[in-house]
Amino acid sequence: MIMVSPVTDETKPSQSRHDGEPDGPAPRRPIADRPTPTRHAADRSAADRALDDSVPTRIVLAMQGVTKAYPNGRMALRDVDLMVPEGDFVFLVGPSGAGKSTLIKLLIRDELPTKGLVLLDGRDLGRLKRRDVPKVRRRIGVVFQDFKLLPNKTVRDNVGFALEVTGTPRRVIVPAVDRVLRVVGLTGQADQLPGQLSGGEQQRTAIARALVHNPRLFIADEPTGNLDPVISWEIIQLLLRINELGVTVLMATHNAEVVTAVRKRVVALENGRIVRDEHGAAYHRED
Amino acid sequence: MAFSLRRAWLGFWKNGLMSLAATATMVLVLVLMSGLIILVIGLHATLDYVQSEVQVVAYMRDAASQQDILALETSLQKMPQVSQVQFVSKAQARQDFLARHPGEADIINTLPDNPLPASLQINLSDPSNYVDVARYLNAQPAVDHVMNIQQTVDQLNSVISVLQAGGTAILIVVGLIVLFIVVNTIRLAVVARADEIEIMRLVGASDAFIRWPFIFEGAMVGLFGAAITIALLFLSQGPVTGFLADYFKVLPIEASTTVGPSIAMVVLGTGVGIGVLGSFLSVRSYLIR
């Protein structure tokens, strides 16, 4: 049923590829130009890091000096710089209220920054015309803690819904849905309703829906918050696998165990500031 | 487009209770509105009828000669204020009286003479010219006295203008209330599917794609509401017209033939218009940002 391989098989090759081995299920770009996982980057600006890599790397997401103040005066983000190159896997960690959700809202352009730039694939989300917002959202896949599935639609229809409401013809929808259901391992449950599925299966349905547009950036906001540890691992493995397929992943989480075990890039927020940005890091600071 | 229509259709039946409430409200409003329109149109018809029938009646002295009366009739016909003049002889007046009051034939018959005077019945082109015509008639030696119908006309006129202004004001107020109710009812349907709208936004559905199903759904509420209202009007038209004709005796309100199709169009237009506008306003708050 679960098509994802055990976590050790998934993470090890991806780790080694950070050191420059171009193997594994061919991603869309050379692997060698990724930042090395051992580099501590907190003391350098994101822009420096991007320029530093001699081979040109496409930057999927760039935030420069982003500040977000809500109308009630609360400062959710202060002067945030963040650069995410294509193919990266980023954990966004920090206590509740640190600004993780706000950061994600800025990325999906649910909110606009008070100051600073948010660039997705080089497009300034702050200056996007209203009618272009949907087009940008189609390049981002988002999943949430609460899955956000439509209870009266089958798994297949929930996933297809994302294409249906963007005006995709039926003959395109059917094979695309079949493909992502294979990726998340839900082919057998395609005709069940969300209520008949386990929490993990529901989250995988949401992941499939987020993937069906072939997004450039995959955002997961506490995707394992409602799931038990074993199921959480399955979801993490699935996200790692999606990352292997070349999709850039940004995952906000409280799950320290997972973050520490996987050893990916960790961006830590506290009081709206990035206090740590390390590759191959643990959930907590290791000095 | 087909997708939006299909979703509107499904949405309408899925939220059956809400759609029922919206449609019922719509029907209530449309019935009220068409009732008011029919009333105002009826009053207009009554006014027209009364005004067309308004006559100045000049009663002739019995002593007046046939020639004098004819001369007066001719001079009246030349007046621009007068549209029509009809001479009613004493004999004709007696016949009319007998026709109207058949029970009193004995009284008339026992009298030695015909007590009823001959008269000129004058239609005015404009009832406000009454005073001129009355003054002219009072100055004529052949005229015994002039009957004053003007008071009645004035009263009717003021009643009608009050009703008309009041009716229009009520229509506007009712229209706004209806729009408010429909907007709120449809908004409940929208709120019930806030999750769906949120998901549509997240996966990058365009505003139009999110809006159209709800617009169609609002249009359906309006369409069904209008259809039910028109059916109700059609069914009640016979009895109501009969009752009105019975009650007012002479009022020539022919709602069935002259008012019917145009009322139906107004009801349909208003229903669909309010439904669409209501949906538009309801969904808008979910799209802005």
Chart the SSEs and their pairings.
The complex is a heterodimer of chains A (287) and B (289).
Chain A: H1 7-18, H2 46-52, E1 59-69, E2 75-85, E3 89-93, H3 100-107, E4 115-120, E5 123-124, H4 133-137, E6 140-144, H5 155-164, H6 170-184, H7 199-211, E7 217-221, H8 229-244, E8 248-252, H9 256-262, E9 265-270, E10 273-278
Parallel strand pairs in A: 3-8, 3-9, 6-7, 7-8
Antiparallel strand pairs in A: 1-2, 1-4, 4-5, 9-10
Chain B: H1 2-14, H2 16-53, E1 55-60, H3 66-78, E2 82-88, H4 90-100, H5 105-110, E3 119-124, H6 130-138, E4 143-147, H7 150-192, H8 194-202, H9 207-248, H10 255-287
Antiparallel strand pairs in B: 1-3, 1-4, 2-3
For the termini of chain A, the CA-CA separation is: 41 Å
The major β-sheet of chain A equals:
6 strands, mixed
User: In terms of per-residue confidence, which ranges of chain B show pLDDT below 50 for 5 or more consecutive residues?
Assistant: 249-258
How much of the sequence lies in strands of chain A comes to 15-25%
Q: Write the CATH fold name of chain A.
A: Rossmann fold
Number of domains of chain B: 2
Secondary structure tally: strands of chain B:
4
Question: Can you tag this structure with a few keywords?
Answer:
heterodimer; A: alpha/beta; Rossmann fold; 4-stranded antiparallel beta sheet; globular; disordered N terminus; B: 289 residues; Alpha-Beta Plaits; 4 strands
What would your notes on this structure say?
The complex is a heterodimer of chains A (287) and B (289). Chain A has 9 helices and 10 strands. Chain A has helices at residues 7-18, 46-52, 100-107, 133-137, 155-164, 170-184, 199-211, 229-244, 256-262, and strands at residues 59-69, 75-85, 89-93, 115-120, 123-124, 140-144, 217-221, 248-252, 265-270, 273-278. Chain A starts with 6 loop residues before the first helix and ends in a 9-residue tail after the last strand. Chain B folds into 2 domains: 2-50 and 154-287, no CATH class; 55-148, Alpha-Beta Plaits (2-Layer Sandwich), CATH 3.30.70.3040. With 289 residues, chain B is an alpha+beta fold. The longest helix of chain B has 43 residues, at 150-192. Classes of the chains: A alpha/beta (287), B alpha+beta (289).
